[in-house]
Amino acid sequence: MGHAPLGVSTVTATHPSMGDIGPITPHTARATAHPNIALVKYWGKRNADLVLPATGSLSLTLDIYPTDTVVSPDPSLTSDIFTLNGEPVPGTPTQRVSAFLDLVRKRSVEQGSGQEKPELPHMYARVNSINSVPTGAGLASSASGFAALATAASKAYGLPGDPRSLSRLARRGSGSATRSILGNLVIWHPGDGDDEHADLTSYAESVPGPDLAMVICVVSGAQKAVSSRVAMADTIRTSPFFGGWVTSTQRDLVYMQQALAAGDYTRVGEITESNALRMHAAINGNRPPVRYLAPTSVAIFDAIAQLRNDGLEVYGTADAGPNVVALCQAKDLDATHAALHERFPDLELIPARAGSGAHLTPVGETSENEQNSAHEGQPAQAHDAANRQE
Ligand code: PMV
Question: Which atom of ligand 1 is nearest to the CA of 388?
């Protein structure tokens, strides 16, 4: 790629929590996004290149652990540079970020947004990302990570910033990132028609529903033996249960939308738990088999069922890992947290409420991560997300 000098002076910035984020260029943009947990899961791609899912899915964006990302296109760079939590990340993560930026630059050329600034789509970028997920929390950073990157990179390279465009773009980085573009309850449409039309129609949208909350039960933060990307592809190829998973999830999605619209929390919870366990059953059917749930995970599902018997309406779900997420009504969050703590005093439990969608932040503003750490009276901490990362 050729790099025409911008002819505009740049300043080198030291960000309080990001360290040296390099020169802030005229096109620097910054965005924040939160993780989400699906109530109706996404498991399986019908087109891996375009990241078109086998079914639609539906999730709750949380108010915890935002990812804060700064993208600075810079004519002096000869490759993209990606730092996570202040450290350069060689290998696959940088390749994924760079491949994603290639897509952004390609769209920037196609959409003519480079015409006023013809050099912009040909510039490599410096990408600095802070992920506040504590070590061992076992939470995905790919959803919040690619949602923040899509939002900041779209602004930096002059692409449209509406939720539909951003969610379609984020989808290409990581499927679940599609849903983190929006806050609270979000549906990701599978898209219909041929691949080109499906690409246009596979996007995320907000859906109304009751006020929900979650308690994340951290069973293990260890890197999982089989990544979700590999296990997902293997389920399609080798699990005899994949067909049943697809047809039942299509039904679940319809019933889930009806239950949310009716404010029928009991139905929402029942669908959430059975959909998650069916996803795990489909994964268990892989050859060679993959089993993400650990004995403690199963014990938590049992305890959740017991809590329901005792009158506290809690339901369980779990992504591609051993951590179990307890779903409850927002009014029951403290009671749910306390009841789980009583039964599992040694487990880390993370309460979360509905959070906001991805949004741009002024480059010099104090981020949510910094505000949170200021509240805790300690320096900003940033850690690698371990478990659900692909
Ligand atoms: O976005 P990916 O490729 O990391 O896939 C995530 C899949 C699950 O987390 C297991 C389910 C979901 O819908 O988030």
Answer: 4
